Amino acid sequence: MLNMMRRIDMKTSLLLVVLAVSLSVLASLVFFWFFNINTVYDVKMFSMDLTVMSTMGFHVGDDAIHFGHIPPGGGGMKEMHIEVGKRRTVVWIEAEGNISEWISISENDFVVEPFSNKSIEVFVNVPDDAPLNTYYEGNITVLLKNAL
User: Fold this and answer.
1) Which of the residues 60, 65, 102, 145 has the least number of beta carbons within 10 Å of its own beta carbon?
2) How far is the C-alpha of 122 from the C-alpha of 106, rounded, in Å?
């Protein structure tokens, strides 16, 4: 009887050890997966600006996103090209600055497959009541995150 209880205790102990190891491995995999998926691996920031004027004007420089001169009630569009390397990437874009409320983006929070690219449009719409001869600026921030 005592021998049988020792066998049961050994089987129970072995089962508990196997269960503990299995749970540790599973927890490690979940931890790695969660933090790998949500890791931002690159951040790009681009300046943008415009001047509210009574006539249209454009700026062709490539050092920033220049919308040029736009009249009240007018708008403009610039194209951005996003290229990724070997990682499947989630792209998140946000606008900041005193121009940000006028900015809209054609597509956001999207996936780009490895070694491919995607073009999106950045639009600005100046309100009808925007004061003339006023300079507005801000930034477009592009976050690149690991995707599944």
Assistant:
1) 60
2) 6
The whole-angstrom separation of Cα 38 and Cα 145 is 6
The count of structural domains within the chain is 2
- State pLDDT tens for residues 8-48: 677 777 777 777 777 777 766 666 656 556 688 899 999 99
Whether residue 74 is found in the same domain as residue 119: yes
Backbone φ, ψ for residue 26 (5° rounding): -60, -45
Q: Mark whether 27 and 60 lie in a shared domain.
A: no
- The alpha carbon dihedral of 11, 17, 18, 20 has a sign of positive
Whether 104 and 87 share a structural domain: yes
**Cα torsion through 26, 27, 33, 36, rounded to 10:** -150
Kindly report whether the global pTM for this prediction surpasses the value 0.90.
no
pLDDT digits (tens, 9 = 90+) for 41-68: 899 999 999 999 998 887 777 789 999 9
DSSP state of 128: T
Q: What's the average model confidence in pLDDT over 105-126?
A: 96
